[in-house]
Amino acid sequence: MVTKKELLMEIDFYLVTDSGLSKKGTLSDVQDAVVSGCKIVQYREKKKSTKEMIAEALQIKAICGDDAIFLVNDRIDVALAVDADGVHIGQDDMPIDVAREILGADKIIGLTVHDIHEAIEAENNGADYVGLSPIFDTATKSDAGKGIGTGRIMDVKNAISIPIVAIGGINKKNCRDVIENGADSLVAISAVVCSDDVQRETKEFIATIRETLDRIS
């Protein structure tokens, strides 16, 4: 049986939930994405209580099952409470070594990085993948900063050996450029969860990513 860390090497489209943007709700978005072949889901929720988050996280975990990696954004306590596959944390959150000590060696830890220095440090500190952000200017996250451009992805790719997930302002018009420049996976929040058809959008992103990877490999 493939472990979740092994599955991390196969990710393409990466779903990050956003209840504020979603048209059909977080659980519906996750269900549609996983059915469409999405192999990694990050539960990001800023407005609900811890109790509500745990209840929802348990439902998301059940939807992901063995087919998709289930991560919790920032909230290590929630990840522990539901035995998630891991967490995604930011530069100002709990240090990776502390998170690793709490979560254990088998859990996945992703870290948001903005440049080569942070990416190298993330790998050296035990991150399983990095979320390189923001590639383009984005309105989804108000504190994301100015887009770094696709050219920086390859710089980071050449500096580390763990997967790179690109995030920030990505859509179907620019996603090929993101993959061509070295991203292993990508996040497109508003392009998917604001859609009337999350299944269709997810399938189209996955198809585009895989076609691009096949062409450049």
Radius of gyration: 16 Å
Give the termini distance in whole angstroms.
Answer: 27 Å
The count of strands amounts to: 8
Q: Helix proportion of residues, in percent?
A: 40-55%
Identify low-pLDDT runs.
Answer: none
Structural class: alpha/beta
Order of helices and strands: HEHEHEHEHEHEHEHEHH
Mean pLDDT across all amino acids = 96
What kind of sheet is the major sheet?
Answer: 8 strands, parallel, barrel
What are the defining features of this structure?
10 helices; 8 strands; 8-stranded parallel β-barrel; alpha/beta; about 15% strand; single chain; about 220 residues
Question: How would you portray this structure in words?
Answer:
With 217 residues, the chain is an alpha/beta fold. 41% of the residues lie in helices and 15% in strands. The protein has ten helices and eight strands. The chain has helices spanning 4-7, 26-35, 50-64, 76-82, 96-103, 116-124, 151-157, 175-180, 189-193, 198-216, and strands at 13-16, 40-43, 69-73, 86-89, 108-113, 129-132, 164-166, 185-187. It has an eight-stranded parallel barrel, surrounded by seven helices. Helix 2 links the parallel strand 1 and strand 2 (40-43). Helix 2 runs parallel beside helix 3 (50-64), helix 2 crosses helix 10 (198-216) and helix 3 packs across helix 4. The longest helix is centred in the last third of the chain and has 19 residues, at 198-216. It is globular, with a radius of gyration of 16 Å.
Layout: helices, strands, pairs:
Blueprint: H1 4-7, E1 13-16, H2 26-35, E2 40-43, H3 50-64, E3 69-73, H4 76-82, E4 86-89, H5 96-103, E5 108-113, H6 116-124, E6 129-132, H7 151-157, E7 164-166, H8 175-180, E8 185-187, H9 189-193, H10 198-216
Parallel strand pairs: 1-2, 1-8, 2-3, 3-4, 4-5, 5-6, 6-7, 7-8
Helix pairs in contact: 2-3, 2-10, 3-4
